[in-house]
């Protein structure tokens, strides 16, 4: 089964806490603080693995975590850093934030290795907090928090030419003749289940990659059949090749209507498809009389002659028109080499973490307020309010983070009581 989508939860490592300890050795009186720093938490890193072509690895496992950093130790010992989590993906994988549906990164082009989540910083041990006025600091800084998010991954194939058309128009046969791809070929009225890539050799030694897209049907952009599942794979293509079957008249269709239907489905899914250069190839020309072939080409030219780069008749059985088609596609691909579609990052999980953690100010009585939330919890984890310096840091924090402004906005005046994590303070101007 071709797995081109996956949804998983990733978590970076938490930073190890700083350690609180004091030097205790024989013949060393009043040893100072020697608590070591915690280790850094592991990062979550995505890397391109050229040996992969699906996201099968992520179908049956839901959560992936880097390891936490270890706590610092005595004698200034640094805690061990957590191990990074390396997640290999095929080239062309686009990683989205599942909550916002915004692009985190596109593993294409130069993006071969991307750190999506960074581990928490290791906390500082108490050896860092000794001063001339505070020689016995009994607190250390906790490690930075781990970050956990749900992501969605989509594989969008990297192909130069996207081969589109109704089922059974000869796409698989053409690709097998053009390239080294070996798709299953049979006269079935249903579509290939998997997109197939083939490398088409060029006369100058530089070829191009062609993707055989599963046959589209009317309503594909709305999710009918398999169209919606695979339309994403031609979003990156530089050129589109519409393959039409002149024998579809027996099924109540015709080449002009087929191209119009395919273009309509492409436009509904992504209007940018209409900006791509396209070629129309009339397939199975060997089964037509010269009069029928000329009539079909005239009808196609009458409707698409001023839009298509070229309209021609081909036969994968006899080889008719294939050299001309290959040269045309190669020239178009070369002319549009710079049009590679790389999705720009729209969302950085670490920026969201860097934003101020939330806090809540709640008026609980006429002259009393409660302040609580993750921002406060984090602060109180490494602030010693019994120490003069620590208390000054706490006061500055309340001002800097806008907590005092919010209290005043809710009506706090001099003499009011503010409760913070079990401590009660009286406010003075």
Kindly summarize this structure in a few lines.
The chain is α/β, with parallel strands linked by helices. The chain has helices at 171-178, 227-230, 255-269, 290-304, 322-335, 349-354, 374-380, 388-400, 403-409, and strands at 5-11, 44-48, 63-65, 85-89, 93-97, 103-107, 113-117, 148-155, 161-164, 196-200, 208-212, 239-244, 278-282, 310-313, 360-365, 368-372, 417-420, 423-426. A hairpin with a 2-residue loop joins strand 17 (417-420) and strand 18.
Please provide a written account of the structure.
The termini are far apart. Strand 15 and strand 16 (368-372) form a beta hairpin. The chain is 21% helix and 21% strand. The protein is α/β, with parallel strands linked by helices and 429 residues long. The strands form four sheets. Strands 10-11-9-12-13-14 form a six-stranded mixed β-sheet, sandwiched between helices. Strands 3-1-8-5-6 form a five-stranded mixed β-sheet, with no helix packed on it. A four-stranded mixed β-sheet has the order 15-16-17-18. The protein is built from nine helices and 18 strands. It is elongated and about 105 Å long. The model is unreliable at 183-192 (pLDDT under 50).
């Amino acid at each position: 089964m071709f797995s081109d989508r996956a949804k998983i939860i990733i978590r970076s490592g938490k930073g190890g806490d700083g350690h609180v300890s004091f030097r205790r050795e024989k013949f060393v009186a009043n040893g100072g603080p020697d608590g070591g720093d915690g280790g850094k938490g592991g990062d979550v890193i995505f890397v391109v693995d050229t040996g992969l072509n699906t996201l099968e690895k992520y179908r049956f496992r839901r959560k992936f975590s880097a390891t936490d950093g270890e706590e610092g130790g005595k004698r200034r010992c640094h805690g061990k850093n957590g191990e990074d989590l390396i997640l290999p993906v095929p080239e062309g994988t686009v990683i989205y934030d599942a909550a916002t549906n915004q692009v985190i990164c596109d593993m294409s082009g130069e993006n071969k290795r991307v750190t999506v989540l960074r581990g928490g910083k290791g906390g500082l041990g108490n050896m860092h907090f000794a001063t001339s006025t505070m020689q016995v600091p009994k607190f250390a800084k906790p490690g930075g928090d781990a970050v956990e998010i749900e992501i969605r991954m989509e594989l969008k194939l990297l192909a130069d030419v996207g081969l589109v058309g109704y089922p059974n128009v000869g796409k698989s046969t053409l690709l097998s003749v053009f390239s080294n791809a070996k798709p299953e070929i049979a006269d079935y009225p249903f579509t290939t289940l998997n997109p197939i890539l083939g490398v088409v050799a060029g006369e100058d030694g530089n070829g191009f990659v062609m993707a055989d897209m599963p046959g589209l049907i009317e309503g594909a952009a709305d999710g009918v059949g398999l169209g919606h599942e695979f339309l994403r794979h031609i979003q990156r293509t530089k050129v589109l090749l519409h393959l039409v079957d002149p024998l579809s008249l027996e099924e109540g269709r015709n080449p002009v209507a087929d191209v119009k239907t395919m273009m309509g489905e492409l436009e509904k899914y992504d209007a940018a498809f209409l900006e791509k250069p396209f070629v129309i190839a009339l397939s199975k020309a060997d089964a037509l009389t010269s009069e029928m072939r000329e009539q079909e080409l005239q009808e196609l030219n009458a409707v698409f002659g001023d839009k298509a780069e070229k309209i021609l008749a081909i036969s994968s059985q006899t080889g008719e028109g294939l050299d001309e088609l290959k040269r045309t596609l190669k020239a178009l691909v070369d002319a549009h080499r710079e049009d590679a579609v790389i999705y720009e990052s729209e969302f950085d999980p670490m920026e969201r973490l860097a934003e101020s953690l939330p806090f809540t100010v709640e008026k609980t009585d006429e002259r009393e307020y409660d302040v609580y939330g993750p921002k406060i919890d984090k602060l109180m984890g490494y602030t010693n309010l019994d120490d003069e310096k620590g208390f000054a840091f706490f006061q500055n924090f309340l001002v800097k983070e806008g907590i005092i402004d919010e209290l005043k906005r809710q009506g706090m005046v001099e003499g009011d009581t503010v409760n913070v994590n079990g401590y009660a303070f009286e406010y003075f101007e």
